[in-house]
Amino acid sequence: MAMLLMFFSTIIYAYINYTLDKRMDEQLLDHANYLFATYPNLEESITSQKEILRQTLNIDASIITADENSQIDTKIIKTKNKHNQHFIEIHIPYKTDKVTKAKKYLSIKSNVTESRELQTGVYKTILFVNIVGILIIVIYAYFLSSMLLSPINTIRIKLSNMDEHMLKNIDLSSLPNEFYPVAKAINGLTSRIRNYIKYQKELFIGSAHELKTPLAVMKTKNQVTMLKKDLSMDQLKDAIKQNIISIDEMNKAISSILEFGRQEGAHLEERQNIDIIEFLKRKMEGFKLLAESQKKNFKCDINPENLTINTQPLLLNQIVQNFVQNSFKFTPKNHNIWFNTKLLKDHFIIEVIDEGRGIEEGKDLFAPFVRSKDSSGVGLGLFLAQSAAEALGATITLKNRNDDKGTIARLILPI
Q: How far apart, in Å, are the Cα atoms of 267 and each of 154, 271, 314, 320, 324?
């Protein structure tokens, strides 16, 4: 802003100087035209009227002679004497002496000291205004930056004092309105980190529990088997079968944990533009074949006709697969599964509706190792889907149908 002020001040000063200089030049030419028009015998008249011209027009007029080689043209000369007085002088061709061939000029000289002092005064005024303006801008910028830095420092201190045990939201009431969007975004991120840490802890605890239970079963079964004196071959086979079942359960839990690790890597996948309609249509072709083999009715209604979005295909695929696979798992034979998509304002919505038993809405099914009563899985599917949705900036909802004859899984994807 200071540079802008100086720039415009320079333009104004240059314009004032140009206008004054042009006006003084024009004024001398007007005086010359007046003399030529008023005095037919110019040389004698300006000699006799010299004092009158000085008093009335504030000019000194005279006839000067130049040699014959001088160029005949009008020129303006600006001078300054030792007393700091400024003069402007114009030489206008008058006539050429027929005998000597000498060229005569009308010389008009005017004292323009007052005009120059006016220009100097304007320059000093503009300079003073610039200095005062720059000082005001600096002071204003200082106080403005202090006002802006104060809430920023508040946010910085809040963030620097945060750790995994003290993830608190920023109090919006202590911030100016302009910082609300930033603070809300930080609070949203804090909530996501808090949930992530919570789920990570639950994942570790759940993993330990899922592995510890089959190990305890195996240990107990082996100990009981070893205590028997007369151990038959059938009892030994039964003990081994129980151990194999426990090992299978452990493998299932470990596979789910490894799947979580692979998804964490998928979070690093670069976003790319894809035609999500074509993407989903290709995926649903496989599920149609699966539905036929399981004697289930799989219906698709994918709209609009085409839509390109910027997303991470691996994470999107994981969410869609989880939704559809769950619907297949809990929907009985000869019942319906609907896969619907629609565009609503600036969101693309994917819905999977089934005719299963529904869900226990009191449970946090997105937490790790939480599963419904009749589920045979480990309980990480929806947890992984939720994690993928958060990475995409999307929202997942899961609820029972209004008629309590199934479940509606919905993915709301911003575009």
A: 32, 10, 9, 16, 21
